[in-house]
Amino acid sequence: MNIPANAASPSAARTLADPDTPFAVVDVHKSRRNIERLAARADRLGVALRPHVKTAKSLDVAGLLHDDTPCPVTVSTLAEAEAFADGGYTDITYAVGIDPHKLPRVLALLRRGVTLRILLDSAEQAEFVAEASRRAGLPIPTQIEIDCDGHRGGLKPDAPTLPEIGRILYDAGCLDGVLAHAGESYFAYTVEEQCLAAKNERDIAVAAAERLRAAGLPVATVSVGSTPTAHAAEDLTGVTELRAGNYVFFDLVMAGLGVCRIEDLALSVVVTVIGHRREYGWIITDGGWMAMSRDRGTAVQAQDQGYGLVTDLDGNLIPGLVMTGASQEHGTLTARDSAHLPDLPVGTRLRILPNHACATAAQHHGYHVIDGARTTNTAPAIQTIWERVTGW
What we know:
The protein is α/β, with parallel strands linked by helices and 392 residues long. Helix content is 28%, strand content 24%. The protein folds into 2 domains: 53-244, TIM Barrel (Alpha-Beta Barrel), CATH 3.20.20.10; 258-387, D-serine dehydratase-like domain (Lyase, Ornithine Decarboxylase, Chain A, domain 1, Beta Barrel). An 8-stranded parallel sheet has the order 2-9-8-7-6-5-4-3. This is DSD1 family PLP-dependent enzyme. Belongs to the DSD1 family.
């Protein structure tokens, strides 16, 4: 495994007390537990699971999904698709709307024997995909994005252009199916709301598929999923596959929705106390928004978690201590709810649990891997370092 030049090797960095901070940490025990939970649920629901690798963007993390055996995955960039193809993955869905400039890279992957499905939601896109497919003499498997909750792109299942788009793709040998993503489920604050979001996601996707079939068009794939709806779905009749990605790490937004517990969060960032402003009740660390991201996803939830909750180096929450401020390379920790501001000398190492795992992970080249199931009398041992895929 290649290790980033600015990261210590596992032999040099023996524990979380060794590398220069800030750096990202993954607890492999928690990730495995999260992965097993959703895999068991997909089995009960009788659907294939197509994990989204956009959160971790790591072949090593993906290796946890299916005992190091390549499985169907979803990606958010062609750089991910290419990296995962290099890693032996041959069944990939690129779940972002396509544009003409990216089609040569799509075709290059198809020529390598990778089944790479692309996504679109307009006749304009369907026309240039069909034309590119004909010129290349190679069908480009394509899914039509269906809008199930007014979030981002997609067509409503009753859109007049849906059969037209399906026909354009089918005539070029490119029609694969439909895909929906319940993005608004990230604002479903109760179990009941999440169940309704999951039902709506399924109903809308299945309705779109049935409309295409009624027009004489075959629909092989009906794909749905988001982390909240994947964990809330009770019936996926008519669906062929379930997608989710955040669940591998989870984060404070998911914990705020009740999809997971705080103790399920597998990603954290190690920072060091570098100063105090006692007159303001501040503890200053070397981990600002460049380490955590600017994401403030919990601000709209019942409990605003600032930029993240704070634990000691062993992962134990420090009661009432929150990362409430961030500049580029400085983090500000304060006590809330009348909690006592702990005495943390300069040099103290802490871990910050993130609001949004995808955004925080994107700030780092890779992950220092620990196993929370192994207890020692020292700081958690670093097992290895896992690289991330970067770029687009």
